[in-house]
Amino acid sequence: MQQADVIIVGGGIIGLAIALELHQQGTRVSVLSKDFAAAASHAAAGMLAPNAERLPAGPMFDLCQRSLEQYPTWISKLEDLMGKDTGYWPCGILSPCLEDGQLATRQNSTFPVSASAIHSYQSGLSQDVIGGDFYPEDAQVDNRALTQALLAAVQDAGIEIQTGVTVEGFVRQQGKVISLRTSIGEKQADHYVLATGAWSSELLPVPVTPTKGQMIGLRVPSGYGQTQPLRRVLFGEEVYIVPRRDGRIILGATVENVGFTPHNTPAGIAQLLNAAIAIYPPLASFPIEECWWGFRPSTPDELPILGAGPCQNLTLATGHYRNGILLAPITAKLIAQHIEGHPDPILNAFSYKRFHSPSTLPAPTQVPDSLPMQLATSRPAVTSPATDVSSTDVLTIAGKTFRSRLMTGTGKFSSLDTMRRSFEASGSEIVTVAVRRVQTNAPGHEGLAEAIDWQKIWMLPNTAGCKDADEAIRVARLGREMAKLLGQEDNNFVKLEVIPDAKYLLPDPIDTLKAAEQLVKEGFAVLPYVNADPLLAKRLEEVGCATVMPLGSPIGSGQGIKNAANIQIIIENATVPVVVDAGIGSPSEAAYSMELGADALLINSAIALAKDPVAMGRAMGMAAVAGRLAYQAGRIPVKTYASASSPTTGTIST
Ligand SMILES: Cc1cc2nc3c(=O)[nH]c(=O)nc-3n(C[C@H](O)[C@H](O)[C@H](O)COP(=O)(O)OP(=O)(O)OC[C@H]3O[C@@H](n4cnc5c(N)ncnc54)[C@H](O)[C@@H]3O)c2cc1C
User: Fold this and answer.
1) pLDDT value of residue 375
2) Using CB atoms within 10 A of its CB, is residue 502 exposed (0-12), middle (13-18) or buried (19+)?
3) Please, what's the b/e burial string for 527-560 (b: 16 or more CB within 10 A of its CB; e: otherwise)?
């Protein structure tokens, strides 16, 4: 098999449609896909509904309209090619209203219909339906039949498609993807397309998250008198009812933010059934054929991510949320044109860059005058603590040098502005970021990645939230992509945290070692967070870790340094920098750690949760410097008895 020009990662409707379009342009394409059955494309209802969805005017509505217009031609080409029916049905969509309130707010609809009109458009509706809207241009397709037809067309065209293959990561060099790491080995092409739906953020730091939807399939009972009594899609406030010509009726869908939690639930099913029967009572006696669920690929602004990716030869086609079936033809066309070098201007509205625009926060300010008086007078006006040390005494980690020996974290700050000012006051040059939380825009992490000036601060992505080695390895890879996406092309650092226990937040030594070994092999500079265990620290150093990071006491506990003796043994034996991480609550504890001979500190909670995080940031920065100087200066030995400060010879005796 010749090497493909383009590899498409993901074989849902989007990946398959792009594959076929590119093939028809003469491009050699190959598709790698993990799991056909899990794709949202199989779970969907197949509505083609830009109007019923009431999308506001703008690029998204235009994109959906363009796709809707292409549907008839696109489908008939596919059906002619494969001789298969895809269930395309331009039946229009009725949106019934059950309450006066709803009707009043929808009076401005382009196609309002009265009570008598809606009952004549569709018989059997509940008497509670008092009017609604009609969207004659909206349509539907049997998305399962369509996806099967696309798959058959792709195979028929001789396009290489491998299923059951998981792409694990992109291997990059100088701004280009040079290969894919997959469950069956390395794969190479000139160009790559990411079309992995709700799973996209497992491969790239794009803000695509799963939104679960539960569905029910009913069937018109035999002997009912007609194969399908419903003439149109019924689009209610809490449910939609999609009739297929073959007698099936699809009810959907819940909208749940529960991650990738599988299964149908009684609550989900009850919600759909009750809402559907309230609109169309005959459904109460129709047999249930099937229940299922799927994961919509959603983005924060509910628009897809299309076009150029963070590498020259990587294109993104993901985040289609509720409209991926509708958007398949236009996505295929636009992505193929983009790869051919003729990008359509509409793609600008869907670039991934919209999530990484420069911060709209005010520019960072200097340390405020609200610092405690004695501190304000004892410090130089604007110098940061890092500048107080000798310029030759630098911290070197994996060949990269830093003047500051204080690393900080991004969690728990009251605002992004306070966070930035405290970084500045502390002089910290390395900031650790929880990849998972930034990815998912977890509370307190919204816009965080964009709020920091990554030209000045070195990102230390961390694997917080990972419970085992495999998870940590995946998140570390994602962290590397995140750093690159934010402009740090050569950043391979990762702070490795593998923490299975939520109460004490103590790291798992065995999985930490396992993950470290793998990540070092993959070229990461690994900074593992560990208990202060000298033997483990040595093992981590031996497998090639760039530092060791023993904890002073449990994360966020503020208990200070509880295991100084072990930390000291680690320091004595280490040939890589030792960074004391976690537990430090006050500057005296920070200075003490440095006096022990630690090469650096990582402090988050003690700064972020202080009454004045900016002042505490500065105090910690100064403590790191003071502790370092003290360590270098050499502490006097501890003695059992007093030893007079003044000389005892030459005293005047009376
Ligand atoms: C309940 C529900 C109802 C919906 N109803 C409608 C509707 O009526 N109309 C409409 O237009 N849209 C609807 N949608 C949305 C639509 O289904 C999606 O937007 C669309 O299917 C997304 O297609 P996709 O190809 O991007 O992703 P998917 O169909 O999810 O396919 C992604 C594929 O990528 C594979 N993959 C993931 N990670 C990897 C990896 N690392 N390596 C290799 N392969 C990988 C997966 O296994 C999967 O096969 C609905 C969705 C749901 C869940």
Assistant:
1) 33
2) exposed
3) bbbbbbbbebbebbbebbbbbbbbbbbbbbbbeb
pLDDT confidence band for 443 (50 / 70 / 90): low
Task: Give pLDDT, residue 367.
Answer: 33
Q: Could you tell which of 7, 8, 14, 55 is best to mutate to test the pocket of ligand 1, judged by most ligand atoms within 8 Å of the CB?
A: 14
What was the pLDDT predicted at 597? Answer: 92
Annotated catalytic, 400?
no
pLDDT at 364: 32
Q: Please list, in sequence order, all residues whose beta carbon lies within 8 angstroms of the beta carbon of residue 50, skipping any fewer than 6 positions away.
A: 61, 64, 65, 68, 138, 323, 326
Mutate to test the pocket of ligand 1, among 143, 233, 265 (most ligand atoms within 8 A of CB): 143
Give the predicted TM-score (pTM) of the model: 0.74
d(CA 179, CA 643): 68
Dist CA 619 CA 595 (whole Å) = 16
Beta bridge pairs of residue 135 = 93
Other Cβ atoms within 10 Å of 305 Cβ, number: 25
What share of the chain has pLDDT > 90, as a percent? 67
Tens of pLDDT, residues 75-114: 999 999 899 999 999 999 999 999 755 655 565 466 889 9
Determine the angle formed by the axes of helices 587-595 and 613-633, rounding to 10 degrees.
20
Burial class (CB in 10 A: 0-12, 13-18, 19+), 456: exposed
The phi and psi torsions of 591 (rounded to 5 degrees) equal -65, -40
| 371: its two tokens | 């610092």
| Amino acid, res. 496 | L
Is pLDDT larger for residue 197 or for residue 420? Answer: 197
Measured in Å, residue 139 CA sits from the centre of ligand 1 at 19
Q: Which residues line ligand 1 (CB under 6 A)?
A: 9-15, 32-36, 38-41, 43-47, 166-167, 195-199, 202-203, 213, 215, 252-253, 294-297, 318, 320-326
Under DSSP, is residue 543 helix (H, G, I), strand (E, B) or coil?
coil
Q: How confident is the model at residue 410 (pLDDT cuts 50, 70, 90)?
A: confident
The atom number, within ligand 1, closest to the CA of 318 reads 26
Please, are residues 97 and 131 in contact by the beta-carbon 8 Å criterion?
yes
Q: What distance in angstroms lies between residue 57's CA and the mean position of ligand 1's atoms?
A: 25
Q: Which atom of ligand 1 is nearest to the CA of 35?
A: 47
495 in the Ramachandran plot: left (φ > 0), alpha (ψ -120 to 50) or beta? Answer: beta
Report which secondary-structure segment, H or E, holds 526: strand 525-530
Choose, from 34, 212, 495, 514, the residue flagged as catalytic: 495
Q: In this predicted structure, what is the pLDDT of residue 637?
A: 83
The alpha-carbon radius of gyration of the chain (Å, integer) is: 30
